[in-house]
Amino acid sequence: MTARILPGLLALSFTAGAPAAPLSPELLPPTVGVLLKFDRKPTPGFVKQLQKEVAGIFQPTGLDLRWEILDGKHGSKTYNRVVMIEMRGRCTPFRAVEATPQGGTPEGGLSLGWTLIGNGEVLPFAVVSCDQIAVAMANMRAQMPNRQVFPSMYTRLAGRVVAHELMHTLLRTPEHHASDATRSPLHPADLDVQAQLRPEEVTALRGIARSQAPTLAQGEKKAGSSTATP
């Protein structure tokens, strides 16, 4: 249909209808509080881009990811699910070109992140090592000297690691698979494309139980073992 403006028509009238009724809680997407705790204060640009990377991966799930930066205090909001992620080390995209390669990389690759496990159950706590991510980028530069490495690649890798740990914690499984978000270890070629969830992963994440009472975000870290993400 082509919209036309009639000459000389100076005013338009609209018929006011009843306001749309709000959606019932059962129809709203589950809220996931992602609580980030940094060792050192990150740059605002890094946090914004990290959230963008993770949101792009989880977009098909419909989950409502809500981010909080913990600064010496516990989260105070309520969510359907809560995950706390400790971001250790110095988190800045410029480390993609500043870090020094590290020899003697262990077989299976570097551990870039890990999820805590207690009494055989995956806990909603994970750790991401910004320093190890920087080493991984430096090693890639050293091993592939003809490959260009940009600061944005550091943030993309950090987003992949955060998304990987979210998959562990939200689906409550320590298992790894061949998909973009659950593969371990990652390879340099993985950074050339946007990570995508498989249809069965999207379905599983959409099925996160809403029958549980909303959870008050708390920054308490429980002791436990961990599953590593090389």
Architecture blueprint of SSEs:
Blueprint: E1 31-38, H1 44-58, E2 64-70, E3 78-79, E4 81-88, H2 95-98, E5 113-118, E6 121-129, H3 130-143, H4 151-171, H5 199-206, E7 215-216, E8 225-229
Parallel strand pairs: 1-2, 1-4, 4-6
Antiparallel strand pairs: 3-7, 5-6, 5-8
Helix pairs in contact: 1-4, 3-4
Short account of what is shown:
The protein is an alpha/beta fold and 230 residues long. Helix content is 27%, strand content 20%.
Characterization of this structure:
With 230 residues, this protein is α/β, with parallel strands linked by helices. It has helices spanning 44-58, 95-98, 130-143, 151-171, 199-206; strands at residues 31-38, 64-70, 78-79, 81-88, 113-118, 121-129, 215-216, 225-229. A 6-stranded mixed beta sheet has the order 2-1-4-6-5-8. Strands 3-7 form a two-stranded antiparallel sheet. The longest helix has 21 residues, at 151-171. The chain starts with 30 loop residues before the first strand and ends with a strand.
Poorly predicted tracts of residues = 1-24, 218-230
Total DSSP helices: 5
Residue share in β-strands? 15-25%
Q: Pairing-aware structural class of the strands and helices?
A: alpha/beta
DSSP, total strands: 8
How many angstroms does the end-to-end distance come to? Answer: 54 Å
**Shape, principal axes of CA atoms:** globular
Order of helices and strands: EHEEEHEEHHHEE
Question: Taking Cα atoms only, what radius of gyration do you get, to the nearest Å?
Answer: 21 Å
Biggest β-sheet strands, sense, barrel = 6 strands, mixed
What's the mean pLDDT score? Answer: 78
Q: In which range does the helix fraction lie?
A: 25-40%
- Widest sheet: strand ordering: 2-1-4-6-5-8
